[in-house]
Each structure stands twice: as C-alpha cells, then as structure tokens.
Amino acid sequence: MKVLFVMVKEDYIDPMNIELLSALAKREGAETFLNVLEHNDLKAEIKRIRPEVVAYSAKTGESSVLIRANRWIKSELKQSVVTIMGGPHPTFNHARMRLDREELRVTDAAAGVVASQVVEDTALDVLAVGEADESWPELIRRLTRGQEIDSIAGLVTRNNRRNDGKVNLRSRTSFLDDLPFLDRDLIYAKTRLKDFGMRSFMASRGCPFICTYCFNAKFNQMYRGKGKTVNRYSVDRMLLELEDLIRHHPTQFIKFYDDVFTFRTDEWLLEFADKYPKVIGLPFHCLTRADLVRRDPGIVDCLKRAGIKSMSMSIESGNPFIREHILKRGMSEEDIRFAFELCHRNQINTFSNTILAIPAPVLPAATDQEFEKKTQHLMDQLSQTYKVNLNHLKLDLPLPPRIELAERNQLLQKLFAIGLRHRAIDYDVESIEANIKYRVVFGEFPALHPYPGTEVTQYTIDYGAFDGDFEALHQNYQTESPFTCFSSKEKLEQVNLSLLGLVLLTIPGPESQWSKGIRQITYRHLIQKRWTRFYFLLYFLAKSYLVGLKIYPMRYSWRHILRTVRESFFSERLKHSKAEGESFFVRKVGLEGPVSEVLGGPWQS
Ligand code: B12
Ligand code: SF4
Questions:
Q1: 552-565 pLDDT per residue, tens
Q2: Atom 13 in ligand 1: which residue has the minimum CA distance?
Q3: Which ligand 1 atom lies nearest to the CA of residue 575?
Q4: Ligand 1 pocket, residue 137 CB under 6 Å
Q5: pLDDT tens for each residue of 134-187
Q6: What CA–CA distance (Å, rounded) separates 350 from 504?
C-alpha cells in the first residue's frame, strides 16, 4: 500500500502527527511518501508515486489549501485513491465537511452553534476525528485487504455519517509506550529540518484546563468517559526514542511540545530529572503554567536539575478581567509574578504567549451623555455574560437614572479595579506592560483567532464580532484581527503593537526613565503610524536575536545561520502579512483555482 502524506509547507517544528502516522502505516507494511506543497512538485510526484492513499493533517486555516490540493488529486486519480484528512480541523469541523460525492445536509444538531450554513466541499473520502492511533492503522490494514472501512470507529465516511454530527470515538490512547518511534526520516529527507539542531517531541498528551481559546476543553468534552485526560510516555520509553533520535540525526536541543509538560513534582518528573541529563544531556525547552509553578516550585528545581534552558508559560492577558472572565485562565497576577521571578532567579529564559485584540467591554467616559444607560448595559453584561459577582462591587443596583459626576468617577474606579478599561487598545498595552514587568525574555503577541469548537469562538459570535465564517481566517494567527468590532485604526494599532511589543522586551532596564519614555512614545504615537513593514523588520531582528541566543541557542556555521535567517524571514513574512503571504504562497504552491466555497484560509487566487 502506497501512502502519500501531503503537507503545506516546511517549518522548524517537526510535524509530529505525520511522523507518527507514517510510522504507524509502516508498521502495517505500507510504503510512505511525503509531498510538501510549497516545493511545487505535487503534480510530478503524483504521477511518479501513484499513491493508493493520500493523507493530510490539518489545522484550521491550512485546511483550505490542503482541500484544494485534494480536489486536484481526486480529479487526477479518481476512484483509484482514498483520501483522508485528520487533525484539529476535521476533529472540530467534520459536520460541515462534505465528502466526495456526498449529499451533505448539515442539520442544526450536527452544526452545533457555528456557521451552520457553510459547507466545505472537500472531495475527501474519509475524515479522522480525534486521536487516530488505532483507527488509522486499521484503515490501512482494511484497505490492504480490500475490506470495507465504514465500520471503523473514529472515522467518518459517506456511508457512516450520522445526522446528529456525532462520531463513534474510541477510548483515548492511554498507553503511549506502545506507539512506534516517530518516522522523522520521511520528513528530514525532504525538508530543512534535516540540518536543524532542534528536535520536537511530546512526552504526553492532554490538558485538563478549560482555557476558552484552546481545543482541549472541547476535546475533553468529546472524550468524556473515554479514558484519562492526560497520558504520558514512561520516562524510559521516551528516553529510548530520544537516544535513537540523537544517534541518527544531528541534534543540539530538544523542544518538548506537550501542552503542559509537568503539573507537579511527581514521580515521573523526579525520574526524568534524574535520568535525562545522564542519558540525553542536551538543553531543552518545555511548557507549563505559572499557577502550577507557584503551587509547586519544586517543578523548577527538577527542570533545572534536568538541564532546562528555557521555558514557556503563557500570560495570555495582562488584564485580570480578560484573563479570568473571557479566557478563563484560572491564574492570578501573583502566580505569574512568582513563576517568572523564580525562572529568572534560576537563569531559565522565559517565553510567553499573550493574546491581543480580544473583544471586551469598555468603560464609558465619566462625561458621556449616555453614561447611565451605557453603564447599566455594562452591568447587565458583567453579570450575565461574564459571570462577575457584582455584590463584590457594593453598588446600589439597578443604577439610578441620573448620576452625579463625582459618583460616576467612583463607579468607574470600582469597575477599573476589576480590570475594565476605556479603550480596546488599553487592554493590549496592559498585556505588553505585564510581559515587561515580569521580565519575560521572549514573547509572541498574536491577535485572537476563533477556531471551531472553542468557547471563545461562541463568545465572539454572541458579542457580534465574528459571523462564524472560518474562511476569513488566515493560516496563521499572527495577522490582523478578524473581528468586526475593531475599527481599521484599532486593527492597525494591534498589529503594530504585536510587532513592537517584542521589540520593547529587548530594551534593558524596564524601570529606567529612558525605557518608560520609549514605551510611552510607542503606545501613544508609533503604533498609530503606517510603518508596519519597518516594525516587522525590527520584530524580525528582535526575534532572531532572542530565539537564536536565549530560547533555543544552538551552534551553527555562518553559512547555515545566513541561510536560516533568509528562510525564516520569508516564513515570518508569510505569517504576519495576509496579502503578501497570499501572493507569495500562491506563487510557490502553484495550485491555482477558486476555493471560494471552502472554509479556513485566505488562499483564493
Ligand atoms: C506542534 C504544534 C504546532 C506546530 C506544527 C508543526 C508542524 N510542522 O506540524 C507549529 C508550532 C508550527 C504550530 C503552528 C500552529 N498551530 Co499548532 N499545535 C501544535 C500542537 C502543540 C501539537 C500538534 C502535534 O503535533 N501533536 C502530536 C500528534 C501526534 O498529535 P495530533 O496532532 O493530535 O495527531 C493525532 C490526531 O489529531 C490524529 N491526526 C492528526 N492528523 C491526522 C491526519 C490523518 C490522515 C489521520 C488519519 C489522523 C490524524 O492522529 C494523531 C494521532 O492520534 C497542537 C496542540 C496539541 N496538543 O495537539 C497545536 C495546535 C494543533 N495548533 C493550533 C494552532 C491554532 C496553530 C496555529 C494556527 C497558531 C499560529 N501560530 O498561528 C499555527 C498554524 C500553522 C499552520 N501551518 O497551519 C491549534 C489548532 C486549532 C485548530 N482548530 O486547527 C492546536 C490544536 C493548539 C490549540 N491550543 O488549540 N502548531
Ligand atoms: S493550559 Fe494551555 S493547553 Fe491547557 S487548556 Fe489552557 S491553553 Fe490549552
């Protein structure tokens, strides 16, 4: 059985999904191949390989370009090929993805809450929903034997699609040790990852938290009653795979990409801290949460002992109202301050993600003619939408029809104290300031993007900021906000701030007058200028410096460094510029043709 994996473009992070699926397919006796659309050789490769199965792993955004490729492949190979897509996009959007020759009617029950009328015309044969460690090999096995595939749990086909949009899922994979080693050879043979010293690995799967912008809450709901939420490799099994990796591929640094690498100082972490430096001994990066570190600071001791170089802990918002009532992060300012300070003292360089451009209510001015009406509306929103306990504010509610200026100011102070601000951009400035205050070494400041299935997506729809059409989303969330509640001036400020925010992190002595002055000039003037291209250049230089020297430091020849800088410049430009990214990408991929009826990306030609 010849299986061809098609992915959109090269990256600096291992596509662990394809690497795992290829290893699983090989275990079933299949021969696997890779095509990278960016290389612009799909047509020739399809002719040469004549695959029997074509497989795609898709996040929302890149899904549309993969679907476009699939429609072309299906038109070339007709019924001689079975095409399948898995990953987060079909996992959360399968009810709206029309398969090849399928009469899909999206019922309200199946559509859930979002964009019920929009259907993606995929021309795919199969969709994989959720984990596929068993369903994928079973599919390969059955296709090899010429058996039917409609009864495989976890897969959606034309014949087994249910009207209510539900999918018969298997239990979660609880014993990861049985999985084969990732098939990195497949990827390294065709991409720059071959010579890149950083290798990614996930020691675990799953996260029990309920952050509203993340897929995990919905995933956990789908899998309720179907196994443990967090599943890990044993330390020995993981080290065996990492040992094998560094034996076969030049490796200088390990990036553990687990959603949360460690929750507490448990036996696993103690064993890891003991064995990793002896067996692997390479610097590494991992992700955790600030509140977990504050609850159990021993986590940092263990990671330090194991040889950690840098650590991700996302702040997501420096504003307490947004952090708790919109993003549901469940952590306090003190948690964040403590955790970053602890890392700083232990010389662990920190990396934080912070989301900008989050639709949130704003305070009226004290002199506003409609102050009472607006404030009462705000109060209603606070209690109904944001579940704020207004009793804590000690207010006489409902508000009287006329409020004097002094009382208005008192009221505003109380609302300010819970985190509400006067302008949308104030929330974002506060987030940048939080990163500076906690001395975050490297930070990314993307705009909020709504992904299918998440609570925040529903929130933005209810807020009136998003219509549920994912077609408007860029492949990457580091671009302009897709929300209609922001004016074009605000969007410009947000984009500029997301670039300049990182530049501000590089300025030493955040408490000095000089540094404070630059920040004020940035917030008051620079972010309003149409100098985004110049800011992008500054951002790129800051990012190259911080990532290359502080977060993932590795040694390379000058030639290699220059090549990497050139390649990452194009890759970053694609990530940040919707219009430029489109034309650049369409030129490179060369898959012309309309995709207007599909969701998920900007790649219309
Ligand atoms: C590593 C990672 C990345 C890497 C990807 C590297 C690469 N070259 O592929 C990088 C850093 C580049 C990245 C970028 C982005 N990411 Co990301 N990323 C992840 C992360 C942390 C792990 C994914 C992974 O490899 N897991 C390991 C594999 C083994 O597991 P898996 O992917 O779940 O695959 C299993 C099943 O899904 C299924 N499966 C998956 N694919 C397929 C395909 C077939 C054919 C079949 C049968 C089954 C199948 O089988 C697998 C085994 O059970 C996830 C979060 C997470 N914990 O999953 C987010 C995640 C996938 N990313 C996400 C997002 C939003 C992004 C960005 C858009 C963010 C941004 N910066 O703009 C970009 C998108 C870039 C793009 N090209 O589209 C979202 C996706 C949401 C959505 N609805 O699509 C996730 C879920 C994070 C989140 N918190 O919500 N990401
Ligand atoms: S802690 Fe991280 S991985 Fe877990 S739900 Fe929140 S954002 Fe997602």
A1: 999 888 888 888 88
A2: 13
A3: 72
A4: no
A5: 999 999 999 999 999 999 999 999 999 998 889 999 999 999 999 999 999 999
A6: 15
Atom of ligand 1 nearest to the CA of 257: 21
Nearest CA to 18 among 184, 134, 141? 184
Name the CATH architecture for the domain at 197-359+424-555. Alpha-Beta Horseshoe (3.80)
- 133 CB under 6 A from ligand 1? yes
Most informative mutation of 92, 211, 262 for ligand 2 (most atoms within 8 A of CB): 211
CB 340 within 8 A of CB 346: no
Nearest Cα residue to 13 out of 196, 176, 185, 181: 196
| Binding site membership of 127 for ligand 1 (Cβ less than 6 Å) | no
| pLDDT value at residue 477 | 54
Tell me where in the chain the CATH 3.40.50.280 domain(s) lie: 2-176
Phi and psi angles of residue 309, each rounded to the nearest 5 degrees, phi first: -105, -40
Decide if pLDDT at 523 tops 90.
yes
Cα angle: 118, vertex 82, 76; to 5 degrees = 85
Report residue 345 as tokens.
Answer: 């003292």
* Structure-token pair, residue 86: 């898995």
- How far apart are alpha carbons 28 and 18 in whole angstroms? 15
Q: Which pLDDT tens digit goes with each residue over 37-70?
A: 999 999 999 999 999 999 999 998 889 899 999 9
Ligand 1 close to Cβ of residue 86 (< 6 A): yes
* Ligand 2, residues at Cβ distance < 6 Å: 207, 209, 211, 214, 216, 259-260, 289
The neighbouring-strand residues paired with 128 are: 155
Give 210-256 as a 3 state SS string: CCCCCCHHHHHHHCCCCCCCCEECCHHHHHHHHHHHHHHCCCCEEEE
SS3 track for 372-398: HHHHHHHHHHHHHCCCCCHHHHCCCCC
Choices 3.90.1150.10, 3.40.50.720, 2.40.50.140, 3.40.50.280: CATH for 2-176: 3.40.50.280
For the chain, where do the domains classified as CATH 3.80.30.20 start and end? 197-359+424-555
Verify whether ligand 1 is closer than 6 Å to residue 522 (CB atom).
Answer: no
**Which residue CA neighbors atom 8 of ligand 2 most closely?**
214
Q: In the predicted model, what is the mean pLDDT of residues 218-223?
A: 96
Q: Which atom of ligand 2 is nearest to the CA of 207?
A: 4
